[in-house]
C-alpha cells in the first residue's frame, strides 16, 4: 500500500498509453469459412467442407464455388452484356418484311392556344356579380338529386321494414322492464304492509308512558348530581346511564309529536 506523503499532493503529468497497431488478419479475406456450406452447390463433395481451415480446398472435378453462392454476386456481373442487343430483322416474327409504321396521332388539346404576339389582351373588364349570393340562390332553386335505387333491393318483400330480430329484441327488453317494475311495486307493497298507522289514543298512551319513565329516570339522576364527589365507579356508571336514557326518551317523545306516527314491525 502507498503511504501518505506530502508529495502525493503534487499533480502528476498524464502520460497517454501507447496506441496498439491495427489488427490485420494473417488469412486471406476471400477464403471460405471453416465448416461452410456456401460452396456445396457445384461441388462433388457434399455436406460441410474446409473442416481443417486450409487456405485452398481440395480440387475436384467441378469448381468448388458457384457463381452466386456467397453473400452477393461477383463484381462486374451486374453490368449489361454488350453483345446482347437487338439485331436487324430479329423482331419481325420470322418475316423479312418490316411492319408498317403508323404515324402517332396526338389527342386534341384541352388547353387554349397560346395567344400570338399581335393579339392584345382585353383590359378594364369588371363585374359587380356577388358570387356568394348567386351561389346561395342557385342552391336554393336547384332541384334535388335523384337517387337511383337498386331494383334488386327495392323488389324484396322486407325492403324498408324493421327486421324481425330487432322486434324480438325490443319485446324481450320491454318484458324485462315490466318484470323489474312489478318487482319494485310488490316490494313497496310488502314494505307498506309491514307498517301501520297508530291512532291518536295509542300515541297519547305512549307519550304518557314515556313521560312517566322520563320523570323516574330524572328523579334518580337528580339524586346523583347532588353528591359533591362521585368517587366510585358504580356512581359514575349510573350517572352516565341516566344521561343516555334521558336523551333517548326525549328523542322518542319528539318523534311522537308528529301528525302521523307509523310503526315498522320488522325492526
TrEMBL record:
Presence of the UniProt keyword Nucleotide-binding in the record: no
Signal sequence, renumbered to the chain: none
Superkingdom classification of source: Eukaryota
Localisation per UniProt entry: Cell projection, Cilium; Cytoplasm, Cytoskeleton
GO cellular component, one term: cytoskeleton
Key words of the record: Cell projection, Coiled coil, Cytoplasm, Cytoskeleton
The protein's name: Enkurin domain-containing protein
Organism: Paramecium tetraurelia
Amino acid at each position: 500500500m502507498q503511504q501518505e506523503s506530502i508529495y502525493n499532493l503534487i499533480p502528476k503529468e498524464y502520460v497517454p498509453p501507447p496506441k496498439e497497431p491495427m489488427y490485420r488478419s494473417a488469412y486471406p479475406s476471400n477464403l471460405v469459412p471453416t465448416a461452410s456450406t456456401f460452396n456445396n452447390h457445384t461441388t462433388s463433395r457434399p455436406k460441410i467442407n474446409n473442416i481443417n481451415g486450409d487456405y485452398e480446398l481440395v480440387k475436384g472435378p467441378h469448381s468448388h464455388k458457384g457463381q452466386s453462392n456467397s453473400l452477393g454476386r461477383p463484381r462486374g456481373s451486374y453490368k449489361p452484356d454488350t453483345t446482347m442487343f437487338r439485331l436487324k430483322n430479329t423482331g419481325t416474327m420470322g418475316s423479312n418484311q418490316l411492319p408498317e409504321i403508323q404515324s402517332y396521332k396526338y389527342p386534341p388539346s384541352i388547353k387554349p392556344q397560346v395567344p400570338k404576339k399581335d393579339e392584345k389582351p382585353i383590359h378594364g373588364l369588371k363585374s359587380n356579380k356577388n358570387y356568394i349570393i348567386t351561389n346561395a340562390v342557385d342552391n336554393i332553386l336547384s332541384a334535388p338529386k335523384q337517387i337511383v335505387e337498386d331494383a334488386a333491393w327495392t323488389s324484396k318483400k322486407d325492403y324498408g321494414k324493421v327486421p324481425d330480430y330487432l322486434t324480438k329484441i325490443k319485446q324481450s327488453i320491454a318484458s324485462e322492464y315490466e318484470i323489474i317494475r312489478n318487482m319494485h311495486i310488490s316490494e313497496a307493497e310488502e314494505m307498506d304492509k309491514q307498517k301501520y298507522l297508530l291512532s291518536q289514543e295509542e300515541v297519547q298512551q305512549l307519550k304518557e308512558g314515556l313521560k312517566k319513565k322520563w320523570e323516574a329516570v330524572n328523579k334518580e339522576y337528580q339524586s346523583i348530581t347532588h353528591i359533591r364527589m362521585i368517587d366510585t365507579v358504580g356512581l359514575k356508571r349510573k350517572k352516565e346511564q341516566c344521561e343516555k336514557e334521558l336523551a333517548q326518551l326525549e328523542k322518542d317523545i319528539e318523534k311522537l309529536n308528529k301528525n302521523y306516527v307509523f310503526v315498522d314491525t320488522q325492526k
